[in-house]
Amino acid sequence: MAKEAEERRQAVWKKSFLILWIGCFITALGYSMTMPFISLYLDTLGHFNKWELNLYSGIAFSITYLSQAIVSPFWGNLADRKGRKLMCLRASGVMAFTIFFVGMAQSVLMVIVLRLLQGAFSGYINNATALMAGETPHKKSGQVMGNLMTANVTGTLLGPLFGGLIAGAVGYRMTFFITGILMGLVFVMTFLYVTEHFTPIPAKKIKPMGKIFHELRQPKLIIVMFLTTLFVQSSLMSISPIISLLVRQLMNGQGNISLVSGFVAAMPGFGTLLLASKVGHLMDKIGPERILLTGLLATAIIFVPMFFVTAPWQLGLLRFLLGLSSAAMLPAVQTILTLDVPSEAFGRIFSYNQSFQAAGGVAGPMVGSLVSSLFSYETVFLVTAMLIAIDLMIVTRVVRKG
After folding, report:
1. How far apart are CA 224 and CA 210, in angstroms?
2. How many Å is the Cα radius of gyration of the chain?
């Protein structure tokens, strides 16, 4: 009987994992279908000089992460009381509407306001991760976190390709309409097919985060993981709002810039997809800390030669290598959080991690826009390499002490 019950439970969490994988894939797909071209889309809504376009692109890109960083702890607290499935439904439902209406925007201000609302109610991938962290046996945590990463990465990989083709054929607006419809599909699938074994905890019985941190085996490690998420996200997002502008510069304004931008934006996905699942298995064997340190070192090194690119294919090749190193970083952070934090606090811990990730999403694009306006697009890569190097030193010090 015990064996049959365990088999049933395993079948349930595997089914939920499959649906959440598809949901994370579509969320990432829709995001990456639209975001690499946000600056080009904004350019169609008015007449802007380089400084204005860089600034508006940075704001439109990062405003979502700003609201996300502010609101995430509230959603995390609610997740620990009401369940993570409800949070997935909330995120996918609201994102379906906000992204769809971005495609109907008539001004930059309207895009920024809708992106602000989108960030305030987003968090599907984060809550799907927290849900699976609670449903998955610990011995498979690294594998599941790594496989969820492949959903994110596969969507990120294919999104710019689809987005580039759609934008080139029927315009930028259609990419937002399609994304909104797909997020509506995610809402329905999550509602019908995801099962969460969750017992609601009354607000009075939830331990304060201060007490939970006090009981943790390595509280400094958890804080450093939050900071690592911020640094990694900042580095990955620093060039995102202006990547299409850099490609346009490298192509001297000639050719199918949208399609080439899509390919260049997608290249890290090829690398991450190649390694993400293997890295998950490796984490379960040798530990996520060693994987994280290796990924940070490789990333810092890879960013440096990006400063010297003179053609889109060079940038694409280096971004492919960046994807190889990226496969090790965020899944390793999530695995460390899963293994070192009690399940009753998963919602809040992962929401705090999302807040730091969102803060990186604010800082990265704004730093990228500022640096590119004051110096050059390529200079952004040197600044990014320095950020990752600083984080590598911090993580190394804490891991050695632990």
Report:
1. 16
2. 20
Query: Quick one: pLDDT at residue 149?
Result: 73
d(CA 94, CA 374): 37
Residue 6 CA to residue 325 CA, distance in Å, equals 36
Q: Work out the burial of residue 217: count CB atoms within 10 Å of its CB; fewer than 13 is exposed, 13-18 middle, 19 or more buried.
A: exposed
Rounded Cα–Cα distance for residues 165 and 349 (Å): 38
**pTM greater than 0.85:** no
Position 9 scores a pLDDT of 67
Burial class (CB in 10 A: 0-12, 13-18, 19+), 51: exposed
What is the separation of C-alpha 62 from the centre of its chain, rounded to a whole number of angstroms?
A: 13
CA–CA gap between residue 77 and residue 82 (Å, rounded): 9
d(CA 231, CA 348): 20
CA atoms of 27 and 311, how far apart (whole Å): 31
Contacts of residue 86, defined as CB under 8 A and 6 or more positions apart, other chains included, come to 78, 79
Judge contact between 34 and 178, C-beta under 8 A.
no
The residue ranking higher by pLDDT, 190 or 129, is 190
Cβ atoms of 127 and 229 closer than 8 Å: no
Look at 83 and 299; give whichever has higher pLDDT: 299
Q: Do 365 and 237 form a contact (C-beta atoms < 8 A)?
A: yes
Q: Which residues contact 131 (CB under 8 A, 6 or more apart)?
A: 16, 20, 84, 85, 88, 194, 196
pLDDT in tens, 100-141: 998 888 888 898 899 899 888 888 887 888 788 777 776 666
CA separation for the pair 259, 77 (Å, rounded): 42
Q: Which of 153-162, 223-232, 262-271 has the highest mean pLDDT?
A: 223-232
CA distance 236 to 288: 20
Between helices 288-303 and 329-340, what is the axis angle to 10°? 150
**pLDDT tens column, 348-363:** 777 788 778 878 877 8
Q: Is residue 123 helix, strand or coil?
A: coil
| DSSP label at residue 375 | S
Domains of the chain in start order, with CATH, are: 2-194+206-401 (1.20.1250.20)
Q: How confident is the model at residue 393 (pLDDT cuts 50, 70, 90)?
A: very high
